[in-house]
What does this fold into?
Amino acid sequence: MNIRKMNEILEVAQAVPYRPAVSIIMPLSASIGLTKEFLHSVKSIIARVERELLATYPADLADTVTDKIRNLINNLTIDTARKSIAIFVSPVYEKVIYLDIPLEEKIMIDETFAIRDLVYAQDQAASYLLLLLSGNESRLFLGNNESMLKIDAGLPESAEAFENDIAERVANFSDMSDRKEIVMEKYLHHIDQVLGKILQTYRLPVFVMGTSRIAGHFKHLTKYATDIRHYIHGNFDASNIETISKALLPAIHAWQEEKQNKMLQKVQDAADEKKLAEGIHDVWRDSINNNGRLLVVEKDYSYVGYHGSNETVIGNAAELSGDSGTIKDTVDLIIERVLRFGGEVSFVQNDALKSHRHIVLIRFY
It folds into this structure.
């Protein structure tokens, strides 16, 4: 997870609650004419925000917030390398966050900022290391679900680099296959040493791609087996990034499924230890009481609620006669509360928590 980005999200979560809190999320396009298209879209969004604010809040308060949004937009530096932008404004706070993950356009005006999409993006933007092995070339990449960047790690160019670096006794071998095996082993040992140094900087899961023969050799000798998630067999010597990414995708999906299964096992363990709040009402209560170590929620689960008889009680907005006093997404408030008081948030696929009413909170105690 990008620590700097998560710290920015935590800053928004910890901002002093003050109505109206306006959250604007916009996708960015790398197409030509980005600025003109972006500013046209922004004008439309500002007009919409202004209408909604004026319908609910006094004109002077609505104007204050709208003017702050305009000033932020006018001073933006559009970075075409980024995928989305999030703007947060209230009468007492303002923040702009650039994101490397594409998000759909979203506007929310509520009592607190809508950070669910940002936290979800961070949760899904899992990084990894990819080691590409062959006798002709070895390459190392730093990747995520959006890009793959080659790392200049000092890997040997090929196994041939070790032809003249083997023991003298090898030169007398009549069996050239034995000689090749020793050369290959020295080559792979050196790659493993480089991988170890890289893992000291990037504590990330590793995927290894290569032919069955060379990947099998590496699997037998590596000291970092616990860091390697999957081996993908094939000859990728002449493959471009697009082909490599496509071949890697099934392993990435399997890894993500493994992560979700581990998360669901944490949920079950917490249930066995009687440390699990299940369903929106119990989760809300424990989040208000600052007793939330880990919130786990289905990625599309939301709940339109309203404040009940006291702050630990949440009701279903369907029980109200109008929209007054409703909370557009109670899950957003819970996420903000859990993060603010030191907890963590993770998402799982829809219906993965069906038996737990779609949302759970693992308590501190």
User: Anything to note?
Assistant: The chain is about 40% helix and 20% strand. Residues 241-272 form the longest helix (32 residues). The longest strand covers residues 21-27. The chain has a mean pLDDT of 87.
